[in-house]
Specification:
The chain is built from 8 helices and 10 strands.
């Protein structure tokens, strides 16, 4: 932990990525901050409460609070010299709404630091046993969401992103799965494109639905999945045999730390 922040006169706030769900996927640093914090504010609808098993501080569920109320708690604790653990699901840099919190803390002169976490995108990939960037298939991963009650920039419409044919990890959109399918196909993905739905990745009650763009909407509806699920789209999620191996360990390919076999 960084003593320069913990010993600050006005205290400090740590934005912590709690990981995708399994309690042992929070980082060692994140767990240490949680256990030593004077106050914990967590995303109650998403964060696994088991990570607070050894936490002695008061717990505040941010799902019932607005931004002003969250900041008031942070400032009150920090100005008394305390340390706040602000716990987000996955990694806080993805759909964590932390920029607005940081801006308010800047206004109040409160120090803060981000402790990264394992995103549910990578938790889902691990659950599926998938490499997201296969050689000669795709070397790009698009992390995005479909516009709903809150819009996305026009240039990031799913139809436009789909034109790249890359691996896509689509957040916050499973409740609109029929629209997602329609837009992805309009952008160029074929009906046979593999799709995996991972609900609550790494949790004990995680659920996986496998299909293609042709049938995934019906399967999701049948499973009654409407939230807390990631839509994983692209050729890497299929069962096709590997078409090419990486050059990284190819004995005939040299690089900065290894010479090629003759």
């Amino acid at each position: 932990m960084h003593d320069k922040l913990k010993n600050n006169k006005k205290g400090s706030v740590y934005f912590i990525g709690a990981g995708p769900g399994a309690p042992d996927l929070v980082t060692i640093r994140g767990q240490r901050v949680i256990e030593e914090a004077d106050c914990v504010i967590y995303a109650g609808s998403l964060v696994n409460k088991e990570i607070f098993a050894h936490c002695q501080a008061p717990l505040y569920d941010s799902s019932t609070l607005n931004l002003d109320e969250i900041i008031d708690i942070m400032v009150d604790v920090a100005e008394k010299g305390g340390m706040v653990a602000r716990v987000h699901t996955g990694d806080p840099s993805l759909y964590g709404a932390i920029k607005e919190q940081m801006a308010r803390l800047d206004q109040q002169g409160i120090d803060y630091e981000v402790v990264p976490g394992v995103s549910s995108a990578f938790g889902a990939a691990a659950t599926l046993g998938i490499e997201l960037t296969l050689p000669e298939v795709t070397q790009s991963v698009i992390i995005t969401r479909r516009g709903g009650r809150t819009p996305v920039p026009e240039e990031e419409h799913l139809t436009k992103l789909a034109r790249h044919g890359a691996t896509m990890m689509i957040f916050l959109s499973v409740g609109m799965i029929a629209d997602v399918v329609r837009e992805l196909q309009a952008g160029g993905y074929s009906a046979e494109t593999p799709v995996n739905i991972v609900q609550k990745a790494t949790w004990l009650d995680e659920k996986i639905i496998r299909g293609t763009l042709a049938d995934i909407a019906g399967k999701v509806a049948e499973a009654k999945i409407t939230k807390t699920a990631l839509i994983c789209v692209g050729k890497v999620f299929g069962d096709s045999p590997l078409t090419a191996e990486s050059k990284l360990y190819d004995k005939h390919f040299s690089h900065g730390t290894r010479s090629a076999d003759k």
